[in-house]
Amino acid sequence: MTHNIIGAVICALAGLLIAFGNYAFSRRVLEKSPDRLALATVGRQIIQVGYLIAVYLVGTRLTVNPFYLLVGAAAGMTVPMLFFTKKLVSFNESLAVKAKKREEDENG
Fold it and tell me: What is the DSSP letter of 63?
């Protein structure tokens, strides 16, 4: 039972890294070309689903119950992503404010 919990914690930490990587990727896309953010979302989903598939396949090969690993991985990706999404929205709003201010300065 202990190895199930340890495996879930390890998968949750790896999920945190996946969530941070997705946040950094989305922020970079938003800075460089905001019109491609929808395409970046597809890439993020592919990474997340790929991670869950990898966790399941590794869990079936080990003596660990894959259920615990999947719960840890899903929680590790979801909970931090709430925070990272909030940061991404506020960053997007600050970009919109800067663009509006620049437009007003150009118009006089």
Answer: S
Find the domain containing 19 and state its range.
Answer: 2-107
Task: Copy the structure tokens of residue 104.
Answer: 């007003």
What pLDDT band is residue 45 in, cutting at 50, 70 and 90?
Answer: very high
Kind and range of the H or E element at 36?
Answer: none
What are the tens digits of pLDDT across the range 75-98?
999 998 889 888 888 887 777 667
DSSP, residue by residue, 12-43? HHHHHHHHHHHHHHHHHHHHH-GGGHHHHHHH
Q: Is the pTM of this model over 0.85?
A: no
Length reported for the chain = 108
Amino acid (one-letter) located at 72: G
Q: How many domains does the chain have?
A: 1
Distance CA 90, CA 13 (A): 25
Residue 33 region, left (φ>0) first, then alpha (ψ -120 to 50), else beta?
beta
